[in-house]
């Protein structure tokens, strides 16, 4: 069995959405030798930094939070789709030939996975693409961008997914993963009542 680690490494200089300084994680040494008898660090990080899942409260006032977390939706079979030819928005035309069925959880492997720097023109899921997936009835989508959409006013891609009970995972690293079916084990930090949760994710090639 092969294990693919598809999470981002968290460090002070990692890529973050739009390179916003406030989204960069800060790891501070709280105490260290020889002054102290222990070495301890503190991490301060926006919940949308690195690999994470969104809940609808992120884009909708009064929306759902991590209280609704269900691990059955995160430990599941997934289909990795090779979309490295897509330049801009992933639309129905890019998805229709991929054999997606009701109940699938799909992960988009795009050119985003090949850059360790934030690319402002990153590949995203268009509103039409999200509607196409909602019509099929997928249960989740994962992207290798730090946003499932890119500067779309009103966040229609997020909202289309959330309105159709589709899980959104952002910030995957899929460079080394071939197109195919895998078992995804995505485990979140258990933070109470927030709009996003950091995830550690592996894909298991045990098909
Ligand atoms: Zn997010």
Looking at this protein, list some descriptive labels.
207 residues; mainly beta; seven-stranded mixed β-barrel; two-stranded antiparallel ribbon; 3 helices; 12 strands; 11% helix; 30% strand; globular; binds zinc ion
Structural features, described:
This protein is mainly beta and 207 residues long. The chain is built from three helices and twelve strands; from the N terminus they run ββββββαββαβαβββ. α2 (127-136) packs parallel to α3 (156-163). The chain binds zinc ion.
Q: State the end-to-end distance.
A: 9 Å
β-strand amount: 25-35%
Bound molecules: zinc ion
Number of strands: 12
Mean pLDDT: 97
**Helix/strand order:** EEEEEEHEEHEHEEE
Structural class: mainly beta
Low-confidence stretches: none
Q: How many helices? A: 3
* General form: globular
The profile of the biggest β sheet is: 7 strands, mixed, barrel
The helical percent reads 10-25%
If you compute it from the alpha carbons, what radius of gyration comes out, rounded to the nearest whole angstrom? 17 Å
Oligomer: single chain
Q: What are the SSEs and their pairings?
A:
Layout lengths: L1 E4 L20 E6 L8 E5 L7 E3 L20 E8 L6 E2 L1 H4 L9 E5 L14 E2 L1 H10 L3 E4 L12 H8 L3 E4 L9 E9 L7 E10 L2
Parallel strand pairs: 5-7, 6-8, 7-9, 9-10
Antiparallel strand pairs: 1-12, 2-3, 4-10, 4-12, 5-11, 11-12
Helix pairs in contact: 2-3
This protein binds zinc ion.
The site of zinc ion has 6 residues, from strand 4.
């Amino acid at each position: 069995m092969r294990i693919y680690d598809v999470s981002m490494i968290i460090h002070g200089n990692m890529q973050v959405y739009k390179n916003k300084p406030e989204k960069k994680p800060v790891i501070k040494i709280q105490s260290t030798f020889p002054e102290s008898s222990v070495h301890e660090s503190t991490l301060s990080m926006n919940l949308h930094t690195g690999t994470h899942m969104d809940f609808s409260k992120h884009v909708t006032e009064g929306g759902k939070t991590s209280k609704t977390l269900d691990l059955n939706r995160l430990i599941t079979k997934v289909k990795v789709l090779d979309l490295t030819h897509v330049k801009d928005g992933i639309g129905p035309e890019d998805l229709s030939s991929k054999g997606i069925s009701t109940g699938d959880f799909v992960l988009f492997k795009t050119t985003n996975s090949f850059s360790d720097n934030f690319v402002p023109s990153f590949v995203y899921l268009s509103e039409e693409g999200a509607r196409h997936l909602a019509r099929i009835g997928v249960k989740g989508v994962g992207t290798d961008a730090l946003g499932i959409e890119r500067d779309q006013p009103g966040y229609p891609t997020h909202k289309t997914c959330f309105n159709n009970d589709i899980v959104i995972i952002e910030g995957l690293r899929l460079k080394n993963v071939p197109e195919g079916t895998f078992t995804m084990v995505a485990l979140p930090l258990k933070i109470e009542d927030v709009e996003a949760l950091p995830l550690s994710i592996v894909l298991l090639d045990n098909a």
